[in-house]
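Forwarding the complex inputs:
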Amino acid sequence: MNRGLQWLTAGLAGLLLGLGLILSGMANPAKVVGFLDVAGPWDPSLGLVMGGGLVVGSVGFALLKKRQVTLLGEPLNLPVSRKIDIRLILGSVSFGIGWGITGICPGPGLVLLGAGIPEGVIYVVSLLAGMALYSVIEKCRHRC
Amino acid sequence: MTIDWQAFTLYAAITALLGGFMIGLAAVWLAWANGRIAGISGILGHLIELMVQQKREAFGWRIAFLLGLLAAPLLWMLFSVLPASVQQTGSIGLVLGGLLVGLGTRYANGCTSGHGICGLSRFSLRSLMAVGSFMTAAIVTVYVLRHLLGVSA
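Prediction (whole assembly, two chains):
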């Protein structure tokens, strides 16, 4: 029974996130690149998106830290890694380059796909291919 | 630095802030209800790996979350017209960019949502390093493309 409820709560989270991405302008690559282009005419909008997200996020996560269980009474499954290594940095740099080229990060990519925008389809297929490439590279590294 | 007042209108500022609240609320909600981080690249990446390993029991909430995200524009369209989405690059750029994002977010274990919203909200130094790295790389990339190579949409 709990599992069905978990699907519902997760589906609602995805829906709310998607609506937030659309409203905020994150699903508009021109808006994203307008924020990243600090040397051109700069659009600070996405700073407000980040700021708004962090205000709600920091309060919500701080309160959750005191509870230590979910609303359904189950243990939390949050990341504990503190490792700062070359994988984290180079991976983030690779992500940043791809984000700069397209103006699309994974969440908005899925929103564009859902909206049936052709660019969203090409982007998400390539995104999945990049993720599959990671799995293949890591598998080879462990075998060789 | 000059502000682009044509793009940064009062309406844009308000919708950005409200949208940001919703994104934060969605992340907090998934953590409170499911005990999980609302990181798109992580959820998508793990789903693919679980599918390959055929571990069906862990599929459900991930698929539900992604379906919610995909359904958001459809729900929006029931009530209103979707805001304009102006693309910045052609097919080659989308393929190259998508590949770099897919590969990079798996190595870094997160993207704008997981490290940017959730990680920074939890005051994770690891996430701060990730965000600093991808923001810097993205800003440099846009600078090179727009101002050095003269590529513009």
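Chain B touches chain A through 116 residues (CB under 8 Å).
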